[in-house]
Amino acid sequence: MLWPKIVSFALVSLCLARVHQAANQDSSASCPTGFSRVADKCLLVGAGWKNWFEGDRYCRTLNASLLSIRNQTEFNLINSYLPEFAAYELELWTSGNSLGDSQANYFWQSTGKEATYLPWATGEPKRASGDCLSLTANYTMEAGGEVVLGEHRLTVRNCTLWGTVICETQLTRYRTELCLNPNAFYEAQIPV
Ligand SMILES: *[C@@H]1O[C@H](CO)[C@@H](O)[C@H](O)[C@H]1NC(C)=O
Ligand SMILES: *[C@@H]1O[C@H](CO)[C@@H](O)[C@H](O)[C@H]1NC(C)=O
Ligand SMILES: *[C@@H]1O[C@H](CO)[C@@H](O)[C@H](O)[C@H]1NC(C)=O
Ligand SMILES: *[C@@H]1O[C@H](CO)[C@@H](O)[C@H](O)[C@H]1NC(C)=O
After folding, report:
1. Second label for 105, Cα 20 to 30 Å away, from 77, 127, 184, 190?
2. Nearest residue (CA) to ligand 4, atom 10
3. Which ligand 2 atom is at minimum distance from the Cα of 71?
4. Alpha helices in the chain (DSSP H)
5. The domain spanning residue 96 has which CATH number?
6. Mean pLDDT of 57-62
């Protein structure tokens, strides 16, 4: 009884070929637990206040680092994320700093790169204030005593001051494949 075996082998091969084709088109990305996807990275607003150094260490315990800002597209997306995830937080530490740089240039500690896009608040940078960059909300006090938060922009602050921490990490990209085993189909997620 060779024929049934050949037929079922052919069917399985056909099935595998289709599965392979389908799987190639199916790739997705996700953030670690607790992080939210913003632009093409994952952000997390830490609980409580920390100075810049404590914030840096805190993010590292999460396999992340303090926020960096690459360009205006990313900056706008971060600013639209903040009201939801950091409502009422006036000062948010980024990884930007000029620590130890004799030229007082600013670097993103998370990428190691010099900061080329720096969306300063009005009147900034006030270099004498310190060496660390925070995203500071522009707020106005309404007549009724209500505080209205505007956009967050970069200000220079003393690294030992307290602020809220934003950590960033990379998206994890997955390719989902269907695999056949003798008893069942199962899905495997393979980091790419
Ligand atoms: C950080 O990454 C290491 C190595 O990949 C892993 O063992 C650890 O569980 C991760 N920690 C967190 C908080 O995700
Ligand atoms: C700007 O940031 C966006 C969002 O993070 C990113 O997708 C894009 O590649 C960046 N553009 C440049 C020129 O770096
Ligand atoms: C706050 O925003 C207003 C309106 O855009 C602007 O005129 C003002 O200079 C800003 N203040 C600071 C501290 O950035
Ligand atoms: C930051 O604050 C500390 C403690 O108040 C102070 O000793 C230090 O001189 C300040 N640094 C700068 C750059 O202002």
Report:
1. 77
2. 158
3. 1
4. 3-24, 52-61, 72-85
5. 3.10.100.10
6. 97
